Amino acid sequence: MISFTLILLNQNYSLLSNAYERIKTYTGTVLENIADGIIVVSKKGIISVFNKAAEQVFRKSSQQMIGKSLDELNPDMMKILNDNFTQTNQELTLKIPVETDRTRLISLRFSKITEGNDSTIFVVRDMTEIKLMEENIKRTEQLTAMGKLASAVAHEVRNPLNAISIIGQRLGREFKPAQREEEYSKLVDLVKSESLRLNGIVEEFLKFARPPRLNRQPTDMAQLLNETIAMIEVQTRDHNIEVKKIYSDLGYWTVDREQLKQALLNLFLNGIEAMPKGGILSIKGYVNENGLYIDISDTGKGIPEEDQNRIFDLYFTTKETGTGLGLSIVQRIIMEHGGWVRMDSILDRGTTFSIYIP
After folding, report:
1. How many whole angstroms separate alpha carbon 240 and alpha carbon 133?
2. Residue 187 is part of a domain; what is its CATH number?
3. Does an H or E element contain 41, and which?
4. Nearest-5° angle of CA 229, CA 232, CA 237?
5. Each residue of 312-334: pLDDT tens digit?
6. Can you say how many angstroms the Cα of residue 36 is from the centroid of all Cα atoms in its chain?
7. Is residue 26 in a domain?
8. Helix (H, G, I), strand (E, B) or coil at 253
9. CATH code, domain with 92
10. Which of 82, 199, 209, 255 sits most deeply, having the most CB atoms within 10 A of its CB?
11. What b-and-e string marks burial along 269-301, b requiring 16 or more CB atoms within 10 Å of the CB?
12. Which residues, other chains included, contact 142 with Cβ-Cβ below 8 Å and sequence gap of 6+?
């Protein structure tokens, strides 16, 4: 009888062990494949769970972080733990440094497990690209409204401007003053050159207000980058700028070749202008499961913090002869492709413009 009972107990134990292992495996699989980052820490802040999504957010592996202090991962999160929070499911946004000069916006929720060893669960989600898309959509709406206004003003200016240009040409061709001919000739030339300059600005306004439709076609992106870089060879040589190509085969993408080339050229020229005494212009391209990324970095003077939120604004410029349309046009082209453009800059260290195309 005792032997029979032992056999039954062993069988039940075996069944329970198998069930436990199945549950454990299932739970582990769920944790590893869930879209949000899951981090579990003890009361003392030691990490015991660090899933795959958390690895992607923080750019650290679970082998690196399990058994380590939360403070090594992020001091702000450790501060939350040490503050002995009482509310659960609080939500806030952190800036997580990654790479050299980049930050990513992270949505963070956390709650305590009071049973057992009094652990804390942090649920993290990378909100960077979502925020960028929201900002780009907002800017695009503003740019569309400003573009309509610019178009109306440009049309009103164009007719009298053409009249002034025609008068200037006639004065230079058909009339000669009785005296001070040289001064007269200079004034006529000035009227003609300024009319041409203003007409160029009007054309830019109209181009921005009525962007051409995308002419999408399969495009070798590495070749497109090479062609655009070739267009700036003279400027980089004259300014003693080294160009670093950090990309290889990027594959074919269905884009508007000419408009995308215009956007890239604008960003390349901005980088060159930021380095009048020489430097390094780096073009990095890579592809992941989300899409195509292109980073254009310079080692120039950087952009002052007070200007960083305004650089994509229509007509905002820090250049003496700038129209403030260049970056707005870049943004519109990239948005038309369904992507976004962002900027990171540190004074006296340089600026990086990043393009994403899905």
Report:
1. 36
2. 1.10.287
3. strand 37-41
4. 115
5. 666 556 655 555 567 878 888 88
6. 22
7. no
8. strand
9. 3.30.450.20
10. 255
11. ebbbebbeeebebbbbbeeeeeebbbbbbbbbb
12. 313, 314
